[in-house]
Amino acid sequence: MSLLKAEGLRAYYNSPIGQVKAVEDISLSVEEDDFIGIAGESGCGKSTLANVLMMNIRPPLKLYGGRLFLNGEEISDKSRDYVKEKFWGTVISIVPQAALNSLMPTKRTKEFIIDVVQAHKKISEKEIIEMAKNKFVELGLSPSVLDLYPHELSGGMRQRVIIVASTILNPKVLIADEPTSALDVSTQKQVLKMMLDLQRKQSIRSTILITHDIAIQRQVCNKLIVMYAGRIVEYGNVDDVLYNPKHPYTKGLINSVLTPEPEVRRRGLMALFIPGEPPNLVNPPPGCSFHPRCPFAMPRCKSETPGLTYSGDRAVACWLYIL
Ligand SMILES: Nc1ncnc2c1ncn2[C@@H]1O[C@H](COP(=O)(O)OP(=O)(O)OP(=O)(O)O)[C@@H](O)[C@H]1O
Ligand code: SF4
Ligand SMILES: [Mg+2]
């Protein structure tokens, strides 16, 4: 049984300028021991998908289609409140994008952790502090951090505190949305190591790591999902996708990481390799939404949308690969 399974999810923001189609026909499954990367340019829908996967759906975002199963139970037909009460923190947890900003300067680490845990489960403060201490020791961190304020912690330690708070109840699935993007390279390594440790020690059973930084996903992930304009365009084992990319967009994305050009690397974009901008998701191009930028576009690409098509455990959504 998959820990998390999505079938044809569609979720749009209802905005004054029209519907923003941020999650379009997304299917995926997360199994025990998976460490799945989700990559793609800014605005392609990664964070929206993260929220949809745990039914954290509030206006202006609305679920328009598809089904979602968590730990074998369908949750796409349940309310956000039901899923929050029954699953958040204990079965699925998220470290949201820019979570570092959520630390209140006036609260000590232990108070922050107590708040996070009590939002999910009625446990006494004493018990939570005990659990936090044990978790810190298990992960090789000093429990004295629990008595410190955010300004007394390094950026990397703050991020680790947030991850500990999100995983203290041993959720099966952890979604980490850009957990390292605000950190320097050596600190990034500490945070990634801790996430791997959590999974090795089975505090969590699977991780979804969202980042535009494919180099990071190459270090820690076993599978990779590449998103473009709200859709999955390529999926497979991380080495297969990175060393033998098939979708033209994935090829561009990887070239941008491998290039020595600092500007391209910094922006994480492939502007020098694939000209043009990501599409407007209110009115995405018909057919394959990548066709205006694709050097291989064929006439059918402009009118027919390629579905994600599997060959073994590899999937690509591109007419070049669909017979
Ligand atoms: N509250 C909102 N109302 C309308 N549109 C939104 C809202 N939040 C996000 N969007 C739009 O939805 C699309 C997907 O956004 P999302 O934040 O999921 O992308 P992302 O891939 O996480 O980007 P980034 O890499 O910058 O974090 C974007 O076009 C974004 O502008
Ligand atoms: S379907 Fe067509 S336009 Fe889209 S990526 Fe493939 S070749 Fe390019
Ligand atoms: Mg995001």
Looking at this structure, what is the CATH superfamily?
Answer: P-loop containing nucleotide triphosphate hydrolases
What's the tally of helices? Answer: 10
**SS-based structural class?**
alpha/beta
Query: Which ligands, by name, code or SMILES, are bound?
Result: adenosine-5'-triphosphate, iron/sulfur cluster, magnesium ion
What portion of residues is helical?
Answer: 25-40%
Please name the CATH architecture: 3-Layer(aba) Sandwich
Enumerate the strands of the largest sheet in spatial order, edge to edge or round the barrel: 6-7-8-3-9-10-12-11
Structural domain tally: 1
**Average residue pLDDT:** 93
Terminus-to-terminus distance: 31 Å
Compute the CA-based radius of gyration. Answer: 20 Å
Task: Classify the oligomer.
Answer: single chain
The helix/strand series, from N terminus to C terminus, equals: EEEHEEHEHHHEHEHEEHHHEE
CATH topology: Rossmann fold
Task: Give a count of the beta strands, DSSP E runs of length 2 or more.
Answer: 12
**Biggest sheet details:** 8 strands, mixed
What is the 3D shape? globular
CATH class: Alpha Beta
